[in-house]
Amino acid sequence: LAKTTQPISMDSYEGQEVNITCSHNNIATNDYITWYQQFPSQGPRFIIQGYKTKVTNEVASLFIPADRKSSTLSLPRVSLSDTAVYYCLVGDMSWNDMRFGAGTRLTVKP
Amino acid sequence: DGGITQSPKYLFRKEGQNVTLSCEQNLNHDAMYWYRQDPGQGLRLIYYSQIVNDFQKGDIAEGYSVSREKKESFPLTVTSAQKNPTAFYLCASRPDRDPLYEQYFGPGTRLTVT
How many CA atoms does the CB half-sphere of B84 hold within 13 Å? Predict the structure, then answer.
């Protein structure tokens, strides 16, 4: 399993773009990168997944450099409701490869 | 309305008692998971199951037991052997062959043991 490293916490203000970087130096060829969001007292929710380059959906963008040793989750124009913990997972999508790290606690201020 | 249900939302038990947490899904997902979350911490994997009548230990299985007699159900028993059972417990499921690496989580059960 590729180990991931994320900042423990980040602060931002409403309307700003937030970029959360995840390091995964030992990522394997078959590994994908997935991000989840978790609000207090709720289960995590899938945000986005990618393998290389850039992926964008209605919620976020995921940037993955060519060496794939890191990835950046980009949240455009955050609001107070984006305050949550964000988890980066790296794995080969096998059913037994679902382990979460400590995550990044994002606080959006008014 | 498809999804994962966990019951109850809050559960209180006396120390030394076993307690079973319910997890049911009607998504027809093959794989199911149990996680534990302590305050301010990430999720830690307790047990997981790919198919009926088969399950594997995760990283912190000691003091817990599970069963998978039906595809839609994956109950977790917190035994008296678990030294610090008070925590937030999350159940999740995912399709076995879905191209997305996506788990669907239940609302969680907050267990307090005194």
Answer: 7
Which residues of A are less than 8 Å from B35 in CB distance? Answer: 100
How many beta carbons lie within 10 A of that of residue A22, not counting itself? 24
Give the pLDDT mean for B2-7.
89
A6-10, A12-16, A75-79, B99-103: least confident range: B99-103
Q: Which residues of B touch A44 (CB under 8 A)?
A: 43, 90, 103, 105
* List of residues 6+ apart from B19 with CB closer than 8 A: B11, B13, B77, B78, B85, B111, B113
Instruction: Tell me the count of A-B CB pairs closer than 8 A.
Output: 63
Structure confidence by residue, pLDDT tens digits, A60-98:
999 999 999 999 999 999 999 999 999 999 887 676 667
Rounded mean pLDDT of B56-60? 93
| CB atoms inside a 10 Å sphere around CB A9 | 11
Q: Does A50 touch chain B (CB under 8 A)?
A: no
